[in-house]
Design a protein that fits this description.
Radius of gyration: 21 Å
CATH superfamily of the largest domain: Type I PLP-dependent aspartate aminotransferase-like (Major domain)
Shape: globular
Oligomer: single chain
Bound molecules: 4'-deoxy-4'-aminopyridoxal-5'-phosphate
CATH architecture of the largest domain: 3-Layer(aba) Sandwich
CATH class of the largest domain: Alpha Beta
Number of domains: 2
Strand order of the largest sheet: 2-8-7-6-5-3-4
Number of strands: 11
């Protein structure tokens, strides 16, 4: 095994695929265009206070799985708040978004289920599909027609269509109403991963409530929503939302719920406080959209092309396609040296040929931050063309 590990390390080195986490230094004053703390809530005093209170009341850890003694009043309250925010009937909280996706896909999948999934679905969905032992057919990114073709001759009694409302790396949005019509026509369930839109999508008084709230999808019996509490909500954890019947099924059948220690009480409390902030302060989601527009405009001059590949109004995630994995890495490093932290996505996180920089237009960026970032990125992109 040791020899094999050494060989694997050499292969990664040869292919330029070595990954290691960038260690953050406290108060490093970098302009942060990399984190998923879209609304700036991870450092919000109100969330911190809620977490502290929860520790005082319940302790630092949940002490056991949800079905044994890990369900506190906080978990129940959080589930009600999540269901209310998104407009779904019921929610079930997991200890991460990854485990929520794993739980729902395995509990609904199996030999009798066909899964028709967008080719850009997140790894946590893909892993769930594999574990579920369902037949999986991928459709071309955002092509409803291709999804329809994949569903057309199904032999399985059940079908699940899986998408993300805003895609994690590309930042573009799924055509949700067409997909729901497709699901209805095929007696299929539509699973929508709201990881990158909860807290961000929505408009007016519902700004930040997500892509489902206030639409025909909310509370629809064919719709399942998954969410993470670790991005816009500034905490940790995940959830599956849907009908009461679905919730009851998951409580009994989702192994990543049944056999996992419950979400820690301070994380549940912080997420609950975040929902309060989101509903009270719709300006945060609006600021994300404002900053996304400013970033896109500021990058437009770069390399004489439209600086981002996505419609900037959709969410926080902006994506800059790069010529190669090496170019993406070099640009991310140069940005870091210029005091700007950006995401760098290259194989194996994305397929070959679609390496990119990923920028997040977080609500708490100042206009000076955006100017600094755009100036640095423009000069880097011009050099790496
Ligand atoms: N789904 C998507 C689309 C994601 O981007 C992520 C996190 N990167 C997850 C699910 C997993 O969520 P968590 O980080 O809470 O495990």
């Amino acid at each position: 095994m040791t020899q094999w590990l050494e060989e694997q390390a050499r292969v990664r080195e040869r292919r330029g695929l070595v990954r290691s986490p960038l260690v953050r230094v406290a108060n490093d004053r970098m302009v942060d265009l990399a984190s998923n703390d879209y609304l700036g809530l991870a450092t919000d005093a109100r969330l911190a206070e809620a977490a502290r209170e929860a520790i005082a009341k319940w302790g630092t850890g949940a002490t056991s799985s949800r079905l044994v003694a890990g369900t506190t009043e906080l978990h129940v309250e959080l589930e009600h708040a999540l269901a209310q925010l998104t407009g779904m009937d019921a929610a079930l909280v997991f200890s991460s978004g990854y485990l929520a996706n794993l739980g729902v896909t395995t509990a609904l999948g199996g030999p009798g289920t066909l899964i028709v999934a967008d080719e850009q679905c997140h790894a946590s969905l893909i892993d769930g599909f594999r574990l579920s032992r369902s037949e999986v057919l991928n459709f071309r990114h955002n092509s409803v027609q291709d999804a329809a073709d994949k569903l057309a001759n199904r032999t399985q009694p059940r079908a699940l269509i899986a998408v993300e409302s805003i895609y994690s790396v590309g930042g573009d949005a799924a055509p949700l109403s067409e997909l729901l019509a497709l699901a209805e026509g095929h007696d299929a369930m539509l699973l929508v991963d709201e990881a990158h839109s909860l807290g961000v999508s929505g408009s007016g008084s519902k700004a930040g409530w997500g892509a489902i709230a206030g639409t025909r999808l909310a509370g629809h019996p064919n719709v399942i929503v998954t969410a993470t509490l670790s991005k816009a909500l500034g905490s940790q954890g995940g959830a599956v939302l849907g009908s009461l019947l679905l919730r009851e099924h998951l409580v009994n059948r989702a192994r990543s719920f049944v056999f996992d220690t419950a979400l820690a009480p301070p994380a549940a409390a912080a997420a609950l406080a975040a929902i309060g902030v989101i509903t009270a302060e719709p300006w945060r989601a609006a600021a994300v959209h404002h900053n996304a527009a400013a970033l896109a405009t500021g990058l437009q001059a770069a390399r004489g092309r439209p600086g981002t590949a996505v419609d900037r109004s959709l969410g926080a995630v902006q994506s800059i396609p790069m010529a190669s994995a090496e170019a993406a890495l070099a640009a991310a490093r140069a940005a870091h040296e210029a005091g700007v932290r950006v995401g760098c996505f290259r194989p194996p996180s994305v397929p070959d040929g679609v390496s990119r920089l990923r920028l997040t237009a977080r609500a708490t960026l100042t206009s000076a931050d955006i100017e600094q970032a755009c100036a640095a990125l423009r000069s880097i992109l011009e050099r790496t063309s």
